């Protein structure tokens, strides 16, 4: 499956996910509004019946137009021309609410119509919860223009009760979102595994290539040494013996690099803390890199500005970090690599930067550059030697020294790796 196909699948899956979630939210909201309107309508009808029941038992036959006023979604104010008896009003409210299956906790309050003060208030629990002890604050009432008597009814948990009536919608929404999240997680795992598989296959192919070359060289040199008469040519004998030794050392270095990463993964990498001069390590590394890349027109500029280059850490691993950064810059710097090494200090530590004027690294590749086995594709998988372990090792060692590493790169302009090592750090083992 190509990268473009995978990208299309991800986009379609994301669009489907967003569409389903948006649709579900829309219908849940719609269902809530419908249920809320129905419940409010039932409450208003119940309160109108309460007013009518009160008037049946009084001599006042005055018709009240729209006696119920909904101040807020859960707060209702009711006009009445009669003085109200609390317990009688409570009985009527309970009866009408139960008849309409409005089984919610509520608070009713009776007001003094002349000074707009509450003369009586009480919390009435639902049949599910008979406790009337809870204190509920009633929203402030606004005095009406006339002097009629009025009372209010407040439902503190109306929103919760409405949601509880929508169990099906709530449960289905939760299940849908959970399923979508699960599928998103599965797709992510599959894509990560695919990517990891591709990286590992690339590593295996590249490792085979890297190991095959010195093995073949050693085999050829051994064949020459076994030829008759070779002992009569000491110079030739010495030359081929040196080739075998160099290629054997190369094999050992490659194997050791893989073993180092294995130890890093198992947290078995040991650190030997000691004082060392960072500048000395840089000055020792530069000639070695220049010799290793003698076939290239390599130019290394060294600008060591730090006045205090003494650090505490593992000298061997820090040396390997410097070698890896310089080696990486030389490998990817083209036919004539130009490398700039610079240090400067702050109160807290030393900054070390290694810059090159190579092809640079694309933004989409920068996030993976420190991952194990990752190598930047340059067309031919074997055109640049290495296992893709160097930068992963660098980041691991920097992290172990409680330092920081940052990549700044632009395509066509080059790359800069900036490292920070704090003074007097305690090394994480």
Describe this structure in words.
There is one protein chain. By secondary structure, the chain is of the alpha+beta class. It folds into 3 domains: 7-165, Threonyl-tRNA Synthetase, Chain A, domain 2; 191-265, Helix Hairpins; 273-422, Heat Shock Protein 90 (2-Layer Sandwich). Helices cover 50% and strands 19% of the residues. It has helices at residues 3-56, 86-99, 158-165, 167-225, 234-265, 278-292, 315-331, 363-366, 390-400, and strands at 68-72, 75-80, 106-112, 117-124, 149-154, 273-277, 299-304, 310-314, 338-345, 349-356, 404-410, 414-422. The strands form 3 sheets. It has a 5-stranded antiparallel beta sheet with strand order 1-2-5-3-4, with helices on one face. β1 (68-72) and β2 form a beta hairpin. α1 runs antiparallel to α4, α4 runs antiparallel to α5 and α5 (234-265) crosses α9 (390-400). It is elongated, with a radius of gyration of 40 Å. Mean pLDDT is 78; it is low at 129-147, 379-384 and 425-429.
């Amino acid at each position: 499956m190509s990268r473009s196909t995978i990208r299309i699948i991800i986009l379609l899956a994301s669009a489907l996910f967003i569409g389903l979630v948006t649709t579900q939210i829309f219908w849940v909201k719609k269902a809530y509004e419908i249920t809320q309107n129905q419940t409010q309508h039932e409450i208003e009808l119940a309160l109108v019946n309460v007013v009518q029941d009160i008037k049946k038992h009084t001599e006042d036959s005055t018709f009240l137009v729209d006696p119920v006023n909904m101040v807020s979604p859960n707060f209702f104010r009711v006009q009445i021309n009669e003085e109200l008896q609390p317990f009688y009003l409570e009985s009527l409210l309970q009866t009408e609410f139960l008849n309409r299956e409005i089984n919610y906790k509520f608070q009713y309050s009776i007001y003094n119509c002349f000074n707009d003060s509450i003369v009586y208030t009480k919390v009435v629990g639902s049949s599910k919860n008979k406790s009337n002890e809870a204190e509920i604050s009633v929203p402030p009432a606004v005095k009406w223009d006339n002097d009629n008597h009025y009372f209010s009814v407040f439902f503190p948990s109306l929103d919760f009760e409405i949601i509880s009536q929508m169990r099906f919608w709530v449960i289905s929404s939760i299940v849908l979102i959970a399923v979508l999240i699960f599928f998103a997680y599965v797709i992510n795992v599959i894509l990560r595994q695919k990517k990891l598989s591709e990286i590992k296959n690339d590593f295996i192919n590249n490792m085979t290539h890297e190991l095959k070359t010195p093995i073949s060289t050693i085999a050829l040199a051994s064949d020459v040494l076994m030829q008759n008469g070779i002992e009569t040519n000491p110079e030739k004998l010495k030359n081929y013996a040196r080739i075998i030794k160099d290629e054997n050392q190369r094999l050992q270095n490659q194997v050791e690099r893989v073993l180092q990463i294995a130890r890093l993964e198992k947290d078995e990498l040991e650190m030997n803390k000691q004082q060392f001069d960072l500048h000395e390590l840089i000055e020792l590394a530069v000639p070695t890199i220049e010799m290793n890349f003698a076939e290239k027109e390599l130019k290394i500029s060294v600008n060591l500005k730090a006045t205090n280059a003494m650090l505490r850490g593992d000298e061997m691993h820090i040396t390997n970090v410097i070698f890896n950064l310089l080696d990486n810059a030389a490998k990817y710097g083209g036919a004539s690599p130009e490398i700039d090494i610079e240090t400067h200090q702050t109160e807290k530590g030393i900054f070390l930067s290694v810059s090159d004027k190579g092809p640079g690294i694309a933004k989409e590749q920068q996030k993976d550059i420190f991952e194990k086995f990752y190598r930047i594709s340059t067309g031919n998988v074997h055109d640049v030697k290495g296992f893709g372990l160097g930068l992963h090792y660098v980041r691991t060692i920097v992290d172990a020294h409680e330092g920081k590493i940052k990549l700044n790169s632009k395509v066509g302009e080059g790359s800069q790796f900036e490292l920070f090592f704090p003074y007097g750090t305690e090394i994480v083992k």
